[in-house]
Design goal:
The complex is a heterodimer. Chain A is of the alpha/beta class. Chain A has two domains: 9-224, Rossmann fold (3-Layer(aba) Sandwich); 229-295, Alpha-Beta Plaits (2-Layer Sandwich). Chain A has helices at residues 47-54, 76-82, 98-108, 113-122, 138-150, 168-184, 196-202, 220-225, 243-246, 270-283, 298-306; strands spanning 9-18, 21-31, 36-40, 62-67, 83-86, 156-160, 188-193, 205-210, 213-218, 231-237, 251-257, 262-267, 288-295. Chain A is elongated and about 75 Å long. The termini of chain A are far apart. By secondary structure, chain B is an alpha/beta fold. Chain B has helices spanning 5-18, 21-42, 61-68, 108-116, 140-154, 175-205, 208-213, 219-249, 257-279, 285-302, 317-321, 324-337, 342-366, and strands at 47-55, 75-78, 85-93, 97-105, 120-127, 130-135. A six-stranded mixed sheet of chain B has the order 2-3-4-1-5-6, sandwiched between helices. Classes of the chains: A alpha/beta, B alpha/beta.
Amino acid sequence: MVQMETQILELKNVFKNFKEVKAVDGISFSLKPGEFVALLGPNGAGKTTTVEMIEGIQKPSTGTISIMGLNWDHHEKKLHQLISLSLQETRFIDKLRAWETVQLFASFYGLNRNRVDEVLEIVGLTEKRKSFVENLSGGQRQKLALAIALLHNAPLMLLDEPTTGLDPTARREIWDILMNLKKKKNTSLILTTHYMEEAEYLCDRIIIMDKGKILAQGTLDELLSANNSKEIIEFSTNDIISDQLFCGQDVYKLIRDENTNRTKLIVKSIVDQLPVFLQKVKENRIVLSNLECRKLTLDDLFISMTGKHLGD
Amino acid sequence: MRNYPFIQLILVQIRDFYREPAVLFWSFLFPVLMAWGLGIAFNKKTEVTKTIAVVFEEKQSIEIFEKQIAKANYENKLDSISKTYYYSFIYGNENMGITHFRLKPVSQQEAELMVKRGNSSMIIKLENGKLQYNFDNHNSEAQLSYLQLSSVFSGDALSPSQAEIKPITEKGTRYIDFLIPGLIAMNVMMSTMWGVSYTLIEARTKKLLRRMIATPMKRWEYILSHILARIVLCFVEATIIFSFAYYYFDITIEGSFLAFIVLFISGILAFSGISVLMASRTSKTQVGNGLINLMVMPMMLLSGIYFSYYNFPDIIIPFIQALPLTMLADGIKAIFNESAGFQQVWKYILVLNSLGLVTFILGLRFYKWY
C-alpha cells in the first residue's frame, strides 16, 4: 500500500489586517515532512506575521492554517507539542544560567535534566551552561533559543530570523546545527531570513514575500530557471543618463541603485543585447567605470521582483 | 527527579531575586536601616535639648532679661564651638522627662536664620521690660516650648499642684512600636507590587511571555508562581526586619502569631491581585513604573506608616482606613501592640482576601498574553 504523503503544514488563502494595514495579503503554501523552507523578504514583508499565525500567537483575519490536520481553534494543547520555535527577539532572564533557562522550558514539556544537557551539547553550549544569560554573546543567545526549540523534537520548527545581527562565524555555527537537524529528516522547518545565502544553503524551497504577498516560490533552481531566459548587464557611470536610452524590446527591466550608481539591465540575451548596449554607450559618449555581464542570481531576481534589496 | 513546571517557575523568581545585589539592598538592608534610623531619631528621648534664640536690642536689656528669667536658676555657659555664651537651665524631672534649654543671645538676623533652619522654634525679645515670645502658632513644638518657658520663668514649673506624673513603661507605646508593624506592612506592599507587577510587565516587554505561552505551560501556573514566590520572599524580608527589631528594640508580637501569619499572607494576596490587574495590559516598563508609583505613593503617605493618619482631617479618615495598606498596617499594629487575635482582625483578613481575589480574576480576564 502506498502511504499518502501528508502535509505537515498547509496555509490556505490567509489574510491578516491590522487596522488599515494588510500585513498578510492572501497567502497559501504547504510544507512536506522533513522539508526546509525559507520565507525570504525585506522588513515589513509579512514574514513574522505569517510565522506568528502558524505559531498560534496571532489569529488570521481570514483563511485557514492547518498543522498536521489540526488547527489552533480546536487543538491548542496538541499543537504546542507539535511545533517548536524561536521568536525574532526573545530576551531571556538575565540572572538565570543557560542550563536553568533550558531547564525551565524543559519542565513545560515534562522533560528532565538529561534532555537539557543533550540540547546544550547539540548547540555547543555545554561549556557555557553555567553562564548567566546576560553574559552570553548574541550568537550564544541564539544558540540558547535554538536549544530550547530543539527540546521536544517537534515535527515542525519555526525560526524567525535566527541569524540576524550575528557575525559570519556565529551564523555558520547556527547553520551547521540546522544542517545536522536536516540530516535526521524528522523535522520540517520554516525559517524567515533576509540573507539570501542562508535560504540557499539551508532550504529545499524558497518563498519570496513582499508587502504581504507571495511573489514566487520553488526550489532555487526552479526560481532561477523560470527566469533563465533572463541575463544581466550591469554597469556604473558618473554621467547622467536617461532611463529611456537603454530600454528596448529585449530589455525587460532597468534597475538603478542611486547609492552605488550602478544600473542593471535585465535582458533576454547578453549575446544579442551587449552589442546594442555598447553601440549606445559609444554614440552617447558615456564613460563607463564598470561593466559586468552575468546570469541572473537570486539576489537579482529579488530586486527585480520587489524593487528593493533584502536588507531594506 | 521530575521536573515540575510550577517549581521551576517559582525557582526562576527566587533566583532572579537573590542574584540581584540592588534588590537585596532595597529589600533587606534598606528597611532595616530605615527602622534603625527612625527608631533612633524618635526614641529614647527622656532628655531633649532645645535651643531658643534671644535678641537684645539694647545693652541694658540684658540686665532686665536676666532678672526676668532669674527663677529658672540658669547658668551661664560657653559654647565651645561658637565661643559665645548662653543661658542653660532644665525643665521637668525624671517622671515627666527632662528638657535642657539653651537660650542663645543673637542678633535679629541670626535669630531669623535659626528659626528658618529649625535650630530654634521661637525668638524671645524684650518689649517694654517684658518678655515677648515670637513663634508660629501652628507649630505645636513652639507652643510647648512657650508653655515650658513661661512656667519656668514664673517659678512654678516643678511644683505640680493637682496631679502626679507616672511614666508609662509598657511595651507597644513607643514610636518604634508604631513604626515596625507599619514598616512590615509597607514592605509587603512594595515587595509585592514591584516584584509581581514589574516582573510580569517585563516578561511581556522582553517577549519572554510570548515565548513561554507558545509552550504547553499552564497560564494560571505562570501567574500563581509569581504570587507564591512573593509569599516566600516576603516572609524572608519580614523575618529580617522583625529579627532586627526584636534584638535591637525589643519588639515582640503580643497578640496571636497565627492571626499575624494569616493577615500577612492576606496582605500579599491583596497586593498580588492588584499587581496582576495592573500588569494585565501594560506592555511598557516605563508605563508600569508610573502605574506602580501611582498606587504605592499615596498609600505610603496616607496609611499611617510613619505618622498616625489621625493627623489628617476627619473627613478623609474613613477613606484612608479603606486603603489596603492601612488595613494591613492597622491589623499588624493591633496584633503586635494590642494583643489582638482573629477576633479583632478578621475583617481586615476578609476584605484583603476579597480584594485580592476580585482584582486577580479581573486581571486574568483582561490579561494580554501576546
